[in-house]
Amino acid sequence: MWEACHGKTYLGEGTTTRMRMLAERYQLQSTHARYNQYTADPTCPLCLKEPETITHFLMECAVLEQTRRPKVSGILAQLEGRGLKTPTTAHEWCLTILNGGRLLQTTGVQLESRLTKLETACIRFCHTVHIERDTRIDSMLMDKF
Ligand SMILES: [Zn+2]
Questions:
Q1: Average model confidence (pLDDT) for the chain?
Q2: What Å distances lie between residue 93 and 55, 79, 83, 97, CA to CA?
Q3: How remote is the CA of residue 117 from the centroid of ligand 1, in Å?
Q4: Best exposed site among 31, 105, 113, 134 by fewest CB in 10 Å?
């Protein structure tokens, strides 16, 4: 029972996280910088190497690679298992995950029931990477004080 409830909450939060990412409401350094040109640095706070765009955060940042890798393999296996086209670039991966595996598919029919598991995997991916980023940023802030 607890397991079931817990899973549901987790997925619920994940859905919200992903919705914010889709709506560009997810706060990344590059989003801050867009609105506060003179005060905010768009550089990724984790790796300090590139602007922290949604693609960088979800697919490219080396600091999150360990968290990301097993989840990406799971999503890839699901795409392949369904005979769906697999993304080739970080940007395509990002869009595919944000769209629940849907973006690169052209058929668009009967996706809902067939892709539920894939959709879930994509939502969990966004949420897991988001939690990892938050945790790391929190501990970096803690270290400053
Ligand atoms: Zn980074």
A1: 80
A2: 8, 11, 16, 6
A3: 28
A4: 113
How many A from CA of 112 to the centre of ligand 1? 33
- Ligand 1 centroid, distance to 88 Cα (angstroms): 20
Contact 67, 132 (CB under 8 A): yes
pLDDT beyond 80 at 35: no
Domain boundaries, given as residue ranges, for the chain: 23-144
Burial label, 33 (beta-carbon count in 10 A; 0-12, 13-18, 19+) = middle
Ligand 1 centre and the CA of 63: distance in Å?
6
From ligand 1's centre to the CA of 110, what distance in Å? Answer: 37
pTM of the model: 0.75
What's the pLDDT at 115? Answer: 55
Enclosing H/E stretch for 69: helix 65-81
Task: Round to whole Å and give the CA distance between 18 and 130.
Answer: 9
Which tens digits make up the pLDDT trace of 45-54? Answer: 999 999 999 9
35 alpha carbon – ligand 1 mean position (Å): 20
